[in-house]
Amino acid sequence: MESLKSPGPDGLPPLFYKHYWSIVKKDVIAAVLNFFTSGKLVQQSNHTFIALIPKVEGASKVNQFRPISLCNVSYKIAGKILASRLKGILPKIVSPWQGAFVPGRLIQDNTIIAQEVVSSMKKSIVKDGFIAIKLDMEKAYDMMEWSFLLHILKLLGFCDKWIELIRECISSPSFSVLINGSPHDMISPSRGLRQGDPLSPFLFILGTEVFSRILITAEENHLFKGFTLARTCPRVSHLLFADDLIIFASANREGAKAIQKCLSKYQSWSGQKVNMNKSAIMFSKKVPRGAQRSICRLLHLSSTPFHAKYLGLPLSKESTITKTLESVVDKVSQKVQSWKSSLLSQASRTCLIRSVAAATPIYSMSSVLFPKGICNKIDALLRDFWWGKREGKGVLYLKDWSSMCKPKSVGGLGLRRTKDMNAALLAKMGWSMASKEKKLWVNFFAAKYLKGQSFWNIKLSSSASWVWKSVLSSRELLSKGICWKIGDGRGLEAWDNPWIPSLEGFKPSPKSQEARHPLWVSELIINNPPRWDLDKLKNFFDDNTIRAIQEIHLSQIPQQNKMCWAPSSSGKFTAKSAYWLDQKPRFENNGPLTSVEWKSLWKLKIHDRLKLMLWKMAWGMLPTMAALNVRFRVNSTQCQLCNSGVETLEHLFIECPFARIAWYLSPWPIRFNVISPLSISEWIKLILNPADLLGCPKEEERHLTLFAAICCDMIWMKRNEATRKPEKVEPAKLAAQIKLNYTNHFQAREFQAQTRFQFSGWDPSPPPSVKINFDAALLNGKASVAAVCRNHCGTILFIWADQVVCSNPLIVEAQAALLASTKAVELGFHSVYLEGDALNVIQAIVEFPNEVFWTISNIARDISLLLSSIDFWHSSYVPRSCNSTAHNIAKWALFCNASGTIPISSLPAHVLAEVAEGSGSPAM
Q1: Which ranges carry the Reverse transcriptase domain (predicted)?
Q2: Interatomic CA distance for residues 860 and 560, integer angstroms
């Protein structure tokens, strides 16, 4: 539970329980266990406040408010446990036509299919035509009958005990409505589900599943006919997402009657009611006017054009895509205009753009390709908002938006261009198609468009839908990041497929053009046990490719080849990693600071407004008189503070007598006469790293940096005041203001030392177990792995080492863990503790079968198989200081090319000394 979620009537948010868990846990656990054993809730724990959230501006009617239930956390804990159990089995009992709240299903799955069906319906030449009925349920949660839900649970096979627990959760609450923040009266409900109860979403979709099955049964009995997207896939008769429903059918009166009967049956059973104001029918072109009127009268619904919205997205484009997506631009515009940019600092605007405004179009961008014009309009709105442009007035853009939309580490602000985000989000759809994910829409698109052909080679037909064009637009981006993880190598062509992670482009290079002929990866593998055929590798590939292939570990358990997304450590696609991969060529640092210095600037523990000030100074983005004179002709370029000298950034902050006095009067008297002339970027570097240049103690760096940032900010503010009101500014008064600001900032700033667990050194394992420490060493493409086995007294029992062909540190560390596991099994140990200083490897072992790092998942699989034969094993991370013995032996083994079991007597004196020191007891 999120810590600051709204509390219930007891006023205690989740944060209270987390903070005081040591005090309240006994009572909370007892209360929850009592509920599960007795089946009864304490009445007070299930009392609920109702907060009325307006749906529209100026809401005045009851139906214009959304009732949100504020449940007590003590109840939510029990409800969450039940919800988690129920959530796990939903994919098995809820039909694929429902997309809400089911693990693995997304809202886009529904919108994609709906848009594709509507696109096909518009092009259909079937004589009678088709209809799409868009339905919205009125007060869906509030009107759900309890008896109906409990009966459904019984029919689905839930046990009586479970049903009684659910009955208690949904029927025992009482309500008080919050009016102006105060609770009023007590209401005892007779039906409905609470919006805010963890159970409600899952119970609701079990109720709507009944309607889904009613429609499926009616279609199977030929009472109405759904829409066929492709001959090889089932008809689409309906799509459900919570209380939003769309039904597709042939446009005839008989089918409409059947749908009306299905709807009436569901409403009478469940208590649900269709909201006629939000529901409508869409007709394809071939449906006669008379038939349209007849069907509308029968269903008591009005007609609407196909570009109506379903789940917030247009079902079909209007005359142009640009016109269809204008509503997205309007949403962004409304967001931006609702904030008074003149009252916000640029740091605040940056935060709002990143977290709110730029996020507004993301939902739409996840499904369709935005035209360039729409992307430019959205970017222009965000750019103008950042620069503070007002209606009817011009604004001075001192830096182009594209360079601001770069990571902070290369001199940008971490903002993102709309077209770049659109490309990365659409790549997620492309990934689903390319990897053949088990999604309903993927099956439909494969049947309609691919028809057995490769996703990579299929040509875009002129009749393709808007959505399919969007999916295919992602192929170029995807091709940069896809890499196959080798299992058995079968069915994978060796030359044209990407399958070698450590090579650029992931594809092999031939030894010569003559060596390039049809070849499967499986032909390069020798089985029993699986290993690479070195002779064949030498026949086909160049030396660099051979070395890269040898780094690929072949699992001892035969596996199928798997498509992975290389930029992501887990191998699973993420839009974030796709964005970075796509924009990597653009993310070059050609600014005044190095990447390390940019990172240092943004990590400073100072106010964001001050960081932005330093950033603008570094880029020369402040409108000094000299800068303005370059763009316009100004009357005078003189400094506004001292009225002598050209007002450049260097003059204003470094050379100006006024500024120099302010610096000199600081707690760290800075004398510019002893510092060589500085450019503004050099001055920023000095602020970021004052210890080296000014000779101040290292511990005072953060104080001086904070002071310098405030000083620059105050000098600029005084300069602006002098521009508006030419008055003499007293340097001493300015210095006093700077000092006051510095004191206030410093007091507000929290320098909290992070408490971390302190490792004291190597610790022995409990008797009678053994502990095996492992590590690896790498140098110039050569690698060695080592493992040191000790008993519970700390006495060294065995030392092993091996040489591996690999230049990837993560893979080499995983090979070291594999060596340790192999030896533990070979020697028949029953209780083993594994320790290493590679956190990523430990994670991969502990979290298997979840693939945390796809490049070592085969090794993690083999380690898991080996360790499964041991009675007890435990794997944990330790810092290098606690793993020094294995580390030093790995370095020594690399130097002398040692492998196998290493006698302690063969170790040189300096290694023996390090081993004795790092083992916790003298080496035997």
Answers
A1: 34-315
A2: 16
Closest CA to 93 of 207, 215, 185, 16: 207
Letter string b/e over residues 175-190, b meaning 16 or more CB atoms within 10 A of that residue's CB? bbeeeeeeeeeeeebe
Query: What pLDDT score was predicted for residue 753?
Result: 40
Distance CA 394, CA 302 (A): 47
The residue among 346, 258, 341 whose CA lies nearest residue 299 is 258
In 3D space, the residue among 820, 765, 760 whose CA is nearest the CA of residue 791 turns out to be: 765
Q: Residues near 906 by Cβ (< 8 Å), separated by ≥ 6?
A: 898
User: Residue 69's closest CA among 9, 126, 122, 121?
Assistant: 9
Beta strand spans in 791-840 (E): 796-805, 831-836
Please, what is the Cα angle at 31 between 30 and 33, to 5 degrees?
A: 65
Phi, psi of 133 (to 5 degrees): -105, 115
Q: Which residues contact 713 (CB under 8 A, 6 or more apart)?
A: 609, 610, 613
The secondary structure element, H or E, covering residue 315 is: none
Q: Encode pLDDT of 672-704 as tens digits.
A: 666 667 889 988 998 888 876 566 666 677 788
Separation of alpha carbons 617 and 130, rounded Å: 63
Tens of pLDDT, residue by residue over 720-741, are: 988 888 777 677 788 888 888 8
- Bond into 731 cis (ω within 30): no
Q: Is 770-919 in CATH node 3.30.465.10? A: no
Return the minimum-mean-pLDDT range out of 387-396, 665-674, 753-762: 753-762
Strand 482-485 vs strand 313-314: parallel, antiparallel, or unpaired? unpaired
Task: Burial-class residue 388 by CB neighbours within 10 Å (0-12, 13-18, 19+).
Answer: middle
Six-digit token pair at 537?
């590798």
Record the tokens describing residue 887, joined without a space: 């580390």
Mean pLDDT on 545-568:
93
CB 918, CB 815: distance < 8 Å? no
Q: How many helices (H) and strands (E) does the chain have?
A: 36, 21
d(CA 624, CA 33): 69
DSSP E strands in 608-735: the ranges are none
pLDDT band at 924 (very low <50, low <70, confident <90, very high): very low
Closest by Cα among 139, 134, 140 to 111: 134
Using a 10 angstrom Cβ sphere, with 0-12 exposed, 13-18 middle and 19 or more buried, the burial of residue 885 is buried
Query: Cα(first)–Cα(last) distance of the chain, in Å?
Result: 52
Euclidean distance between CA atoms 841 and 835, whole angstroms = 10
d(CA 150, CA 144): 11
Q: What is the 3-state secondary structure (H, E, C) of 90-138?
A: HHHHCCCCECCCCCCCCHHHHHHHHHHHHHHHHHCCCCCCEEEEEEEEC
Going 846 to 851 to 856 to 862, the CA torsion angle's sign is positive
Task: Please tell me whether residue 676 adopts helix, strand or coil conformation.
Answer: coil
The β-bridge relationship of strands 47-54 and 174-179 is parallel
How confident is the model over 500-548, as pLDDT tens digits?
999 999 999 999 888 888 999 999 999 888 999 999 999 999 999 999 9
Angle at 672 between CA 666 and CA 673, to 5 degrees: 130
> Where residue 776 falls among pLDDT bands split at 50, 70, 90?
very high
pLDDT at 357 over 70: yes
Residue spans of the domains in the chain: they are: 14-303, 322-392+409-415, 487-560, 595-748, 770-919
CA angle 261, 263, 264 (to 5 degrees): 65
| Residue whose tokens read 């919570």 | 242
Taking CA atoms, 833 is separated from 825, 864, 904, in Å, by 12, 14, 21
Tokens linked to 899: 């492998």
